[in-house]
């Protein structure tokens, strides 16, 4: 009878230790999941913010201003436009 009681006590102790370990692992995984969800929300917010900034940077007015100021470009006009005729390049090559 004493052996059975010791065996049962050992089985109860082992199952209690297993239960504690399982609960610890469960809490740890839940914490990691919560962190991952927070990171996902942060990245989604950053993506939306960057898309808004991208749209703001790509407006036609901004591009035209940059072209004039940084690249020294100006609108095309008939006075500075050079027209190439189809026959002039073919005749020069022969």
UniProtKB/TrEMBL annotation:
<feature type="region of interest" description="Disordered">
    <location>
        <begin position="35"/>
        <end position="56"/>
    </location>
</feature>
<keyword id="KW-1003">Cell membrane</keyword>
<keyword id="KW-1133">Transmembrane helix</keyword>
<dbReference type="Pfam" id="PF04999">
    <property type="entry name" value="FtsL"/>
</dbReference>
<keyword id="KW-0132">Cell division</keyword>
<keyword id="KW-0472">Membrane</keyword>
<protein>
    <recommendedName>
        <fullName>Cell division protein FtsL</fullName>
    </recommendedName>
</protein>
<feature type="compositionally biased region" description="Basic and acidic residues">
    <location>
        <begin position="35"/>
        <end position="44"/>
    </location>
</feature>
<dbReference type="GO" id="GO:0051301">
    <property type="term" value="P:cell division"/>
</dbReference>
<comment type="function">
    <text>Essential cell division protein. May link together the upstream cell division proteins, which are predominantly cytoplasmic, with the downstream cell division proteins, which are predominantly periplasmic.</text>
</comment>
<keyword id="KW-0131">Cell cycle</keyword>
<keyword id="KW-0812">Transmembrane</keyword>
<comment type="similarity">
    <text>Belongs to the FtsL family.</text>
</comment>
<keyword id="KW-0997">Cell inner membrane</keyword>
<dbReference type="InterPro" id="IPR011922">
    <property type="entry name" value="Cell_div_FtsL"/>
</dbReference>
<comment type="subunit">
    <text>Part of a complex composed of FtsB, FtsL and FtsQ.</text>
</comment>
């Amino acid at each position: 009878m004493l052996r059975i009681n010791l065996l049962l006590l050992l089985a109860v102790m082992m199952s209690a230790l297993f239960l504690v370990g399982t609960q610890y692992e469960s809490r740890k995984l839940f914490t990691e999941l919560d962190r991952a969800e927070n990171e996902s929300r942060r990245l989604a917010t950053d993506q939306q913010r960057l898309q808004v900034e991208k749209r703001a940077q790509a407006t036609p007015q901004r591009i035209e201003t940059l072209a004039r100021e940084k690249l020294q470009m100006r609108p095309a006009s008939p006075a500075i436009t050079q027209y190439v005729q189809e026959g002039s390049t073919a005749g020069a090559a022969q």
